[in-house]
Specification:
The chain is an all-alpha fold. The protein has one domain. Helices cover about 70% and strands about 0% of the residues. It has eleven helices and no strands. Helix 3 packs across helix 4, helix 4 packs antiparallel against helix 8 and helix 10 crosses helix 11.
Length: about 270
Amino acid sequence: MFNIKSETSNPILKIHKYRKILLSTTLNEIRANYSGSILGLAWTIFGPAVLITIYVLIYAVVFRIQPPNMSVLEYILYVVSGLIPFLGFSLALGAGTLSISTNKHYLLSTVFPAELVPIRTVISSNTILFLGIALIAALALFTQMASFFILLLPLVIIFQILFTIGIVWVFSLISLVFRDIQFMIQYIVLILLILTPISYTPEMIPPAIKIIAYLNPLFYFTFSFQSIIALRQLPPLSIVAGGIVISTTVFWAGYIYFLKAKAVIFDYV
């Protein structure tokens, strides 16, 4: 029986209890990710910037895709504001899936609970999301292409992070007994990149297959970013409600699964 008032049963209370050590270890992990490299943390911007530039050139210049009522600059902003959160999710999913298999000793730790390890990895892997959205929002403000709704971006980031943590809680334990999942992740990400409306708007999707977009959980987050940053409007209520329900459900379900499965799985590793 789960009691949400119990620190053990409530992930929010647990995060609050261990917030200081979680913050310090997350910062250490970010430093470790880029230690020894010449550019260091600049890779957080440089690497994705190259990918985003190529992506934009292909769709905006080569294919000359331009949705109705959008200028070229608005379309570029639309693509970038959708691609950045997608990159944050994909990086966190890949790193988070291996977070427990590379830190098995935490499974029996009482100093730093194992369920906080995936959280640490998800946050440290999402530096592209935090910095990227901040930069693109600043660009929108500088070019006078921003609206008052831009203040809601932190909420969208929080819900995407909650969703990612929930997924990673599940995948990180599965990878202990089914190691092939770490190789499957790259193909899952590729499929999601194609299915997620990033370079095209929901209106451009044929009605017969539009249901595919709504069955894709990432759509609710990427389109929320695109609506606020590029379209300068609130996302539709269905997108907002869907994103909240999906993120909170996956977050809590992932946490419950992790608590119930970690002791059982530990006996097999």
